[in-house]
Amino acid sequence: NPKDIALFPQRNEVRELKKISGIWKFKKDAEDKGVEEQWFNGLKDFRSIAVPGSWNEQFTDMKNYRDWVWYETTSFIPERWKDEKVYIRIGEASYAAKVWINGKTVGEHAGGHVPFSFNISPMLNFGAENRITIQVENIFEFGRMPEGGFSSQAIADLDYFPYGGINRDVYLYTVPQKAHIKDITVVPSFKGTKGLMEVIVEQEGDVEQGSITVSGNGHEIDKNIQFVDGLAKISIKIPDVRLWSPEDPYLYNVKVVLGEKEEIDSYSLQTGVRTVSVNENQILLNDKPIFLKGFGKQEDFPLFGRGTNNPVIVTDMELMDWVGANSFRTAYYPFDEEYYNLADKKGFLVIAESPAVGLFGLNDTAQIKSIEGLCNQYMEEMILRDKNHPSIIMWGLANEPMENTRRKEGDTSKEEAYKMFADYMQRAKDLDPTRLVMYLGDSNGPSDWYDVADVICLNRYEGWYKTNGRINEGVQNISNELDQLHTKFKKPCILIEFGAAALPGAHAINPEMFTEDYQVELIRAYMQMAKHKDFISGVMLWNFADFKTTSSIIRMGGYNYKGVFTRDRRPKAAARYLKAEWKSDKE
Ligand code: GCB
Fold it and tell me: Could you give the percent of the chain with pLDDT greater than 70?
């Protein structure tokens, strides 16, 4: 059931939680013979791998490996878990995975960057060690998301490294047998000093009664809830509401209990009260204009690849504070939940993105059909998982949807592509009417699709790929384009990706491309231009840090050097330039 990923597992009076990440057994299966040879009954001749962590970084012979592998670990399951429903939750496995417990099939999942969860009670031995086996592959092919199969040489058709493996933590957890809370959606709003939370609770089971307690800012509000067909809805008024904002990222605690006299299940989450909206020129948070100063980020670091590592999450937000940034994008996929938890607490504004990157597939009818379902699935999983984070103000639903320029007369795929795309954007808005939606429009993509977005988000590399070496001419081009787009669509714009590669330590008297000086000059020119347009609601640099990508003649050593920090998080000259700009804005 996909809904099993809605709530991050937690430990309390009635729920148990055990993290089983660590060093696991691991084996390559390039010929895909493991299932036939029943490797799920115990791996032989294995090596060891860290979970979470990408295999590409951990093994010298697996840098570009994308085929099948096997993971195995064991975990003791106590006798007392017999009376509970036991689940396994895998934070993400790129790209597809199959799971066995004690040699018995549990289930499978396709799609990286999002968690998946299975009820494993029927396969467990209680009061004993249990064997957990996960088969993973990261094959890149047509009809997957992100899409593959467009170029035969590169190992990926996108500009980040397609790391494989179990890249996030794995948990075992329990929920009560009788009934449990499956999903909680909190929709906040306010009027003057009165806050409102519309809360929807979904349970698995048929308990009729429950309660909700909202506490914070010196108030505790208790309400009983009544379930009809497993659902309960209630509006909770919050007096003297303390709104969530970057200046005051205040969080309320929302506790849901199932059961009247006896506590059958309970779940607590933290969320904030804030609203997001737009007018013709601005993005508004709590009805006041905000300006996004920030970065596109990747989950990328030496040694773990895309594997979750909490010190990196903490350090990156610390560095973003240090330069005076207030926002970041999870380019181009949903990040580990800890990013959003910390952003909620620290007051960062987040554009949370789906894995629909490089939609080259909008070219013809067959391609549209092949990806439509996946676009929707991953968008829905992302919203399901992340909807209660006040830090997320906007969903990023696609990166660079492309048009087929070789269409013949009578080909209706252009209209079909637009329809698919518009339906997809609308579906996200229907699922979550409280946030904005956007996609990144490439200069080669369709320019008339912005009518389906709340904000016009441009990625432009004038002064770099185009008008290279001629920064002022390039910036003038974008300035003209922005004016035209704003006149046509009357929506706020974000310069959501721009930048120049800078090799750390490279300098020149006359700024030359690839020097730190050129990177500063280019960023300065874009930011100055943005200052003179009142419909620009943000500047987001590409990228926060240098990151690993696939080899090519424009990616020296396999890295994209557009970071303002190096891959190991040392500041380039551009970081100091931004600090001077953004910190002085604040003062
Ligand atoms: C882009 C892409 C991004 C690349 C960037 C670049 O337009 O959206 O994925 O990393 O350009 O650096 O080339």
Answer: 96
Domain 277-497+526-543, CATH: 3.20.20.80
Domain boundaries, the chain: 22-168, 180-271, 277-497+526-543
**Per annotation, catalytic residue among 92, 381, 400, 581:** 400
ipTM, 2 decimals?
A: 0.98
Q: Tell me, yes or no, if 129 is annotated catalytic.
A: no
Q: Which atom of ligand 1 is nearest to the CA of 459?
A: 7
Q: Which amino acid is at 470?
A: R
Choose which residue among 159, 359, 402 to substitute to test ligand 1 binding: the one with the highest number of ligand atoms within 8 A of its C-beta: 159
Find residue 270's DSSP bridge partners.
253
Q: Are 211 and 225 in contact (CB under 8 A)?
A: yes
CA of 289 from ligand 1 middle (Å) equals 28
Q: Is 15 in the pocket of ligand 1 (CB under 6 A)?
A: no
Does residue 438 carry a pLDDT above 90? Answer: yes
The mean predicted confidence, pLDDT, of the chain is 94
Strand partners, 571: 565
The total number of residues shown for the chain amounts to 587
- Judge whether 497 counts as a catalytic residue: yes
Alpha carbon of 444 to ligand 1 centroid (Å) = 13
SS3 145: coil
- Residue range 387-402: mean pLDDT, rounded: 93
Q: Which atom of ligand 1 is nearest to the CA of 400?
A: 8
* pLDDT of 176 over the 80 cut: yes
pLDDT band, residue 587 (cuts 50/70/90): very low
CATH class belonging to 22-168: mainly beta
What would the two tokens of residue 480 be? Answer: 């003209």
Convert the pLDDT of each residue in 138-169 to its tens digit: 998 877 888 776 555 455 678 899 999 999 99
Q: Do residues 158 and 332 touch, judged by C-beta distance below 8 A?
A: yes
Q: Name the superfamily (CATH) of residues 180-271.
A: Immunoglobulins (2.60.40.10)
